[in-house]
Amino acid sequence: MHIKKEWKYHLILAVILVGLDFFEILGNKRELDHLKNLDSIYLWLKSTFNLSCITIYFINFKVVCPRFLKKNNLLWFFISSLGLIFLFAAIRFILEEIIVFEITGVHNYYDETRRFWYYIIDNSYFALPPILYSTMVYLVLKLIEDKDLNKAELDLLKSQISPHFLFNTLNAFYVELIDDKPKTAKDLHKLSELLRYVTYDSKQDFVPLQNEIGFLNDYIHFFNKRFEEELALDFSTKGNIEHQQVPSLILIHFVENLFKHGVVNDKKNPAKISITITTDKLILETSNRILSSEKYMDSGIGTENVKRRLTAIFNTNYNLEYKTEGNSFYTYLKIPT
């Protein structure tokens, strides 16, 4: 997230909280009198309290959230939040009961309430809002950042070529070949449709499932040509593909990985792609033997991008699994439709 955009959200939240605090003071006669009389003790304690809140807010936002929430390590995030409560109490104690007392000779807490556990428990109530607010802002900014990243990655994919030049060239070849080499012309037309889908038709976040499967069929067609009709792949769909919507260019990731890393010309052990559609979900499963020269892994830029995009769209309402057994690799994806 760009630093200027990030600070915009912090500023908006600060204005809201200051406004709410101001209205709270207006409704509290005692605090309003302190403010009107510019009571120095009141101003000192108000300033140290706000400084303690701001410190905890940014420690949580800049350190704790990126370190643990980004990796979905909720246990350590919870433990760190407890640590922030103790830190808040320590900061406030130093500022108010030591520094301000040294200047003014006045304690904020009475003697009997400055006992360790009472002080911690009392301050836990005040520490929670800055922790919750900073966590909320972090999650909102992360969601916006993920969506921007997904859009940028998709736009980059679509902008690798000059569309008009490419389509005009393919059309010229098609016209020249249609009479003498109709099969080649047909393949050129299919290639043009495939590229047109990537460039134009998939601009929306969601596309009709039947269009996406048509795109996969065209993609597989060219690999079949490459392997001179020796392609060993079982591609099947089950269920009604009409009136279903899926994220654009999601399914192609798994098909592309299969061709890139898998054995797809072994008739005895064909690679498999299965898509099952029900009224509320889509399940994609692939299996293939791994090339002996490949170190097939479930990580990498492409895989991480797909995970981030799925999370941005479906939150946690999806299931993505990668599994290696012997010399075979399996993938499983379930998403709502």
Major sheet: size, sense and barrel closure? Answer: 6 strands, mixed
What is the domain total for the residues? 2
* Overall pLDDT score: 80
Radius of gyration: 30 Å
**What structural class is derived from the secondary structure elements?**
alpha+beta
* Order of helical and strand elements: HHHHHHHEHEEHEEEHEE
Helix share bin: 55-70%
Count all strands and give the number.
8
- Overall form: elongated
Task: Compute the separation of the termini in Å.
Answer: 30 Å
Low-confidence stretches: none
* Count of helix runs: 10
Measured by DSSP, the beta-strand proportion falls in: 5-15%
Short description:
With about 325 residues, this protein is of the alpha+beta class. The chain has helices spanning about 5-25, 30-35, 40-70, 75-105, 115-160, 165-175, 180-200, 210-225, 250-260, 300-315; strands at about 205-210, 235-240, 245, 260-265, 270-275, 280-290, 320-325, 330-335.
Characteristics:
337 residues, alpha+beta, Heat Shock Protein 90, six-stranded mixed β-sheet, two-stranded antiparallel ribbon, 10 helices
Chain-wise SSE layout:
Layout: H1 3-26, H2 29-36, H3 40-69, H4 74-104, H5 116-158, H6 163-177, H7 182-199, E1 206-208, H8 209-226, E2 233-238, E3 245-247, H9 251-261, E4 262-263, E5 271-277, E6 281-290, H10 301-314, E7 319-325, E8 328-336
Parallel strand pairs: 2-5
Antiparallel strand pairs: 1-3, 4-6, 5-6, 6-8, 7-8
Helix pairs in contact: 3-4, 3-5, 4-5, 5-10, 6-7, 7-8, 8-9
